[in-house]
Amino acid sequence: MSEPAATRPGKAPGSSDWLIRGAGPGDVAAAAAAVEALLSELGGGRPPRPALEAEARALVDDPSQGQVLVAEAGGEIVGVLAASWLRAIHVPGRYVVVEDLWVEPAWRSAGVGAALIEALAALAREQGAARLEVGLPRESFAAIAKTEAFYSANGFEHLGPRMRRLLE
After folding, report:
1. Distance between terminal CA atoms of the chain?
2. For position 121, what pLDDT does the model report?
3. pTM of the full predicted structure?
4. Residue 29: CATH number of its domain
């Protein structure tokens, strides 16, 4: 999968310019910290930081498995999107699942999340994928309505609930 070209979508808090780009090896720790913050907000369990960093590194090192995009402002990471490529018999060709999307609270409602989604959609189209999917947090998540509204506003529609079984 090709790396996204850096885009300069706009300005936000403090009139700082920000851009979206593919994560590189130097972004692994920041991406893991962002996902750790996301998991904390969601109220779920958090794997140890080294495990998060290992998964971020795996995606950065092998874009055929997934993609990590970052939003950067003033040299700081203000948003992270991690996605996985999947195949299924019921979906012709590959498709992309947004696994993690986090934006620094001060940067929310500034278009950063939407720009991350659009950058991923552009990459998916380049690869011939016709579909993005995302699983929503638990209904008990305090901001579930805002999260659902965000994805709806960015072209997602309900597909039905997902369930999981953890294997030990």
Report:
1. 32
2. 96
3. 0.87
4. 3.40.630.30
